[in-house]
Amino acid sequence: MERAIFINSEVKSWHEAAIHPFNFSMMYGVGVFEGIRVYKTTDGRKAFKIIEHIDRLFESAKILNLKIEFTKKKLLENIKLLMNEISSDNVYIRPMIYCDGDGFLGLRAKTLTTHLVIAAITWQYSASKEQKKQGLNIITSHLQKGSPNSGYFSAKANGNYLPNIIALQESKNLGVDDVIFCDQNGFVTEASGANIFFVKNKKLFTSSTVASLNGITRTTIFKIADVLGLTYEVLDFKKEDLYCADEIFLVGTAMEIMAVTQIDQRKISNGYQGELTKEISKQYENVVSGKSPQYQEWLTLV
Ligand code: PMP
To answer: Does the global pTM surpass 0.90?
Structure first.
């Protein structure tokens, strides 16, 4: 596996990169990040929707009121610079903006500075055809998603992941693959690192982004649905709607499209990836690997 890191305005070897253990972001989770995939295409390796990811990173920083000292153009240049260190075609890029409180341990650090780090690593987690067919077994977390007044869920902020990680680890201990969270009204929001869709009578449904991340894959699915002539609706729905769905799938940059074939011990349909999930997943693969000519503007050479 290859990996490279950009820190303090230069490319360093993985182990050379160091941040003080009592760093402010490390203590309090104040930081924002992105996850971007690079795919092999017929005309070179390309990052999928990197402009959208960079835009979201800047918006996340704005929401947390972090001051960014560089431009979007510079970030893209630095990502390309880092990619020169990696020869593989399938790569995961993780830019992160973190804060440094200059050694101050308390909450009230006076001089908070923001810094950019970027990691690029060989991608090595793709699901096999068989795993896709089997799908995921998920549960609803006993942890409730906070109300929109309790945090900023549109920001991809480091600290937002605390409940997600706790719940995900609990689900792993129970031998299941992932968790979803409901909000204070019992409406389904999202999974630990993905948005959720379900299919009923050939129509797609997904939750709003009131208490979920505005997923970049989620928006891609809307476009794919249009092209496939499928209708979709954004609405509030409950766990029961999932239990009685014809198909369920999770979507995210890392996960891509994964069927959910069991939820809270209820089997979905025949317990295998559904037909529409399979079709959408196939279209998504074509889009990210440059096989669909109409989506070239979503792909950037890196
Ligand atoms: N929700 C959460 C909590 C996530 O971590 C992710 C992954 N970034 C998503 C949804 C899906 O977002 P995207 O499609 O932009 O990767």
So the answer is: yes
